[in-house]
Amino acid sequence: MQENIRNFSIIAHIDHGKSTLADRLLELTGTIDPKKMMPQFLDSMDLEREKGITIKLKAIRMNYKFEGKDYILNLVDTPGHVDFSYEVSRSMEAVEGAILLVDATQGIQAQTLANLELAKKQNLKIIPVVNKIDSPIAKVEETIEELANLLQVFPEDIIKISAKDGTNVEQILTTIIKEVPPPKESLKNDFRALIFDSEYDSFKGVIAYVRVVDGEISNGEKIELMATKSPAEVKELGYLNPTYSAKEKIKAGDIGYIATGIKEPGKVTAGDTIIKFQNAATKGTVEPLPGYQKPKPMVFASLYPENPDDFDILKVALSKLKLSDSAVVFEQEMKEALGRGFNCGFLGTLHIEIISERLQREFGLKLVISTPSVVYKVHDQKGKEIIIYSAADWPDQSKIRNTEEPWVSLEVIAPSNQVGRLMEILKGLKGNYITTNYLSPERVIIVFETPLRGIIANLYDKIKTASQGYASMSYNLLGYKPGKLVKMEIWVAGQKEEAFSRIVSEDESYFEGKKMVEKLKEVLPPEQFSVALQAVIGGKVIARETIKAYMKDVAGYLYGGDITRKNKLREKQKKGKKLMKAKGKVNVPTKAFLEVFRA
């Protein structure tokens, strides 16, 4: 019965304890066999465990008895990093309530506020929870006061827990049952289900994770995906607890999965509506669900296979990854220096790193990755506007009349005693200081307007380091503003490496060029000959470093005798190195591309 169903998500800033709380909920409801239970159970991806963060939203069905009644609790766990906010927005569409989790040792953070705004837009019932009350450095009362003021609730309405040792976690379950409303969907209406995620299975085709909004569907029935007009047949359906639990039917209010049998990943998209197949008589009688706003990529990077023969494998791999991460956008491109590849849009630099790691691990691809860039606008001498997605598309400087770049409104939340250090970093962004607001006497919100290119240059890590881990940030796109921009090329051993080209501010070009060649000197392995690294703008070298040749004493095995014999061998080696330098090309390893864009 729908009255006994509760759909909710957990939203929080990164590292506030979402995954640990999810573990305790799974244990309390007996969803997972204790023998199979492990920390961060829902973070099933190796990358999530290695980095200690949630990357993908996860759905799981739990059963819980309260006051003699059986309840179904559908949890949709969400990421906390700013780069994965689109995952959070999708999960909000599938639920009626949200646990807003705040770490008592860190207080309210930037993503806490950003996720709260998303929840409010969806009119979700918000359950405020303060975590880590067992920590010796926890500021429980201050955090409760901040949260109470933010939500306009009484301090006693906020649940205090320790997800680590399970203190008061059961209170969350009872509060969800009492306060989160049951689904309002109707069983009487025609079947409609919203796709909020999907993945590919070689036997079952694309498996769509759905929130059933109206009606019910049975195994074996014919269905249709409304946006792509793709017909299919249900191969299997059921619930997620935690693996696929096949059932004969799912109905309104349920969160579950439908195996479509579709083998073309592009036909299944997040936000699409699944309905029962319509014949000519019933065509057009069912309205599609509102779906999701399409994510706006903030950062673009080109991905090329190191082996040109792997292009088709990369194409299939990106299509399959897009099923589980619809924020990735890509289109085919061809560059003379790199061959065939894809220009891809991402939500941030961590997003690029995660996708490139998954392509290498899950599909065995070795990649060439261009330096991340934002979308610029160039106006040529005739007044025509050109959209620039990568440095490779930048026109000759003599043809450019003026350039524009995207700006963002940046919010940084930090302890008030760390403001001085953070302001130094923010001033380096060449933006405009707007205001400082106080959440409490100990914590402030600094608002800055700045070019987006400064945000993607590892700003998140910089402010974390400067604030000893206590600061956080979020940002929103404002629009485009004029900027003095130029294309900087990187030459390695006399050959242009297009993947390292980037757009930089004219005022900062020398600093950027010097930083780039110094970083390359660190990450590129030495060769048998000396390698020149040059930063070039408009044919002029603005910075240079040299990687010394790998040294080997060819006469080392000789002993005694005439010195001329050793000198002959060394002269021969010198000539060989000179020849290699004239003909040689440096192969840049994939790791070097990743290291450079992290710099």
Walkthrough of the structure:
- The chain has 599 residues and is an alpha+beta fold.
- It has five domains: 2-179, 3-Layer(aba) Sandwich (Rossmann fold), CATH 3.40.50.300; 192-276, Translation factors (Elongation Factor Tu (Ef-tu), domain 3, Beta Barrel); 299-372, Alpha-Beta Plaits (2-Layer Sandwich), CATH 3.30.70; 377-483, Alpha-Beta Plaits (2-Layer Sandwich), CATH 3.30.70.240; 486-598, Elongation factor 4, C-terminal domain (Alpha-Beta Plaits, 2-Layer Sandwich).
- Helices cover 26% and strands 34% of the residues.
- The strands form six sheets. Strands 11-10-16-7-8-15-12-13 form an eight-stranded antiparallel β-sheet.
- A hairpin with a 2-residue loop joins strand 30 (531-537) and strand 31.
The separation of the N and C termini measures: 54 Å
Q: Mean pLDDT, rounded to whole units?
A: 83
Strand order of the largest sheet: 11-10-16-7-8-15-12-13
CATH architectural type of the largest domain: 3-Layer(aba) Sandwich
Shape: globular
- Domains (count): 5
Q: Could you give a short account of the major beta sheet?
A: 8 strands, antiparallel
Compute the gyration radius: what is it? Answer: 28 Å
Strand content: 25-35%
